[in-house]
Design brief:
The chain is of the alpha+beta class and about 90 residues long. It contains two helices and six strands; from the N terminus they run ββααββββ. The strands form two sheets. Strands 3-4-5-6 form a four-stranded antiparallel beta sheet. A two-stranded antiparallel ribbon has the order 1-2. α1 crosses α2. About 15% of the residues are buried.
Length: about 90
């Protein structure tokens, strides 16, 4: 799945991804993603920017030894940067 131009930001200011989006970003089939999610092998980390990075959110998705990182504009959900999937 290509990296989206935007992601959803909910009313609380959190990034919202569907299971299909997360699986695609991690480069795995949805069924495998869901199985790993249930087994506790998938998690995410959200970091909110401060100082020069204020107004940005960094979302890091982890699945086993793979990770994918997106930097998002908090106000609009526009994806500003992405790191390719790599070994964590």
């Amino acid at each position: 799945m290509p990296v989206p131009d935007r992601v959803e930001i909910d009313e609380a200011g959190d990034v919202v991804l569907s299971a299909e989006q997360a699986a695609g970003l991690l480069g795995v089939a949805l069924e495998d993603f869901l199985a790993d999610l249930r087994a506790g092998h998938v998690y995410s980390v959200i970091e909110r920017g401060e100082g020069a990075d204020a107004g940005r959110i960094r979302l890091t998705l982890h699945r086993r030894s793979t990770r994918r990182r997106l930097v998002v504009e908090a106000a609009t959900g526009r994806v500003l940067e992405t790191d390719p999937s790599d070994e964590a």
